[in-house]
Write a structure and sequence with these properties.
This protein is mostly helical. The protein has 2 domains: about 100 residues, no CATH class; about 140 residues, no CATH class. It contains 11 helices and 2 strands. This is Sulfotransferase domain protein.
Length: about 240
């Protein structure tokens, strides 16, 4: 597939991925990359994408490379759609404006209390985790606000784990592809086109997460909901 991509003008290689918008330089990445619900920040980064020399050319190459990558992937596999699990909102901000792509968005929500439990395993404090959860969904709402409603599907993480077959059918219908049920167990090397540490796993299974009540105290729950309870209810969770 890389040969075809190079022929079309996207210089892919095993150690070069021109479809990436991020910078290795942390300062540049912090200034030029990242979606923000703040209009002023977004406008400044939009201006840089279109006007700032070198950066502008880099963005154009990433745009072209992403479009060609998806098209080549569909051609090689003979499939009708690509499901990209990338969580970068700024990357999606770019992709949604590419005329050659028909974008549909799946936003997966998670109860803020369960999110705090997960984040604690990565050494985030309770307040840091709640703020991160709130910012992520605030930005997701902002990003999708101007999109047609039939192009957005909100899915609960809990329902995907507990009602896997029904949720998968909803996803297939939303994406306009044939209905399917996920195999159990899942063999990542067959499901992931490109590799990360998940692909290197021998097998995975979908299972409900442990109840958050096992990991947080009533006092912690009150503190969490005092910050994000309103938003949590808006996404369909009972506080």
């Amino acid at each position: 597939m890389f040969v075809e991509l190079n022929r079309l003008g996207a210089p892919f290689a095993h150690d070069r991925w021109p479809n990436v918008y991020t910078y290795a330089n942390k300062t540049l990445d912090r200034i030029l990359y990242g979606y923000s619900s703040k209009v002023s920040v977004r406008l400044a980064r939009d201006w840089a994408d279109r006007r700032l020399p070198l950066h502008r050319d880099r963005v154009k190459l990433a745009d072209l490379s992403n479009e060609l990558f998806y098209r080549s992937l569909l051609k090689v596999t003979g499939k009708r759609a690509v499901f990209d699990p990338d969580k970068s909102l700024w990357r999606f901000w770019h992709l949604r404006e590419l005329p050659g792509l028909e974008m549909r968005v799946v936003v997966m929500t998670k109860d803020v209390r369960s999110f705090v439990v997960s984040a604690a395993k990565r050494n985030y404090s309770l307040v840091e985790a709640v703020r991160m959860w709130s910012a992520s969904y605030r930005d997701a709402e902002s990003l999708t606000a101007s999109m047609p409603r039939d192009r957005i599907l909100w899915v609960k993480h809990e329902e995907l784990c507990e009602k896997t077959d029904a949720t998968t059918l909803d996803l297939c219908e939303f994406m306009g592809v044939e209905s399917m049920t996920l195999p159990q167990p899942i063999y990542p090397s067959q499901q992931h086109v490109l590799g990360n540490r998940i692909r290197r796993s021998e097998s995975l299974s979908i299972r409900p997460a442990s109840p958050y009540q096992e990991s947080i105290t009533p006092e912690m729950e009150r503190e969490i909901l005092a910050i994000a309870g309103e938003a949590n209810e808006r996404y369909g969770y009972i506080n």
